[in-house]
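Structure in, sequence out. Go:
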């Protein structure tokens, strides 16, 4: 007759289910981004942090090119950091945000 209804925006409590959902949704998100690039010629960069804080990314043509183009179109000056320095900065920001919350990771994806 019908599916069991779950609250749409409730955080998943079971850790195994959470990991499976994260993995499937990340793959689906990257697949949609790939289709967008292939079908429409869009330039795309997506950075997703895993539950352990490990960054996973999809980029086409490259993350650095997409980010620099975004910054140029926004009228700002090109950043002085290369891509490796930008990744290190993002990881430092991530670590500091987890520390500020007393180690509690409560982010919506």
């Amino acid at each position: 007759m019908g599916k069991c209804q779950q609250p749409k925006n409730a955080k998943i409590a079971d850790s195994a289910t959470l990991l499976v959902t994260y993995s499937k949704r990340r793959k689906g998100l990257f697949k949609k981004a790939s289709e967008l690039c292939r079908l429409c010629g869009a330039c795309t960069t997506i950075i997703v942090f895993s539950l352990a804080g490990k960054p996973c990314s999809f980029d086409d043509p490259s993350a650095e090119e997409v980010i620099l183009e975004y910054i140029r179109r926004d009228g700002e000056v090109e950043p002085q950091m290369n891509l490796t320095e930008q990744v290190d900065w993002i990881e430092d920001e991530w670590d500091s945000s987890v520390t500020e919350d007393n180690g509690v990771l409560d982010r919506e994806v």
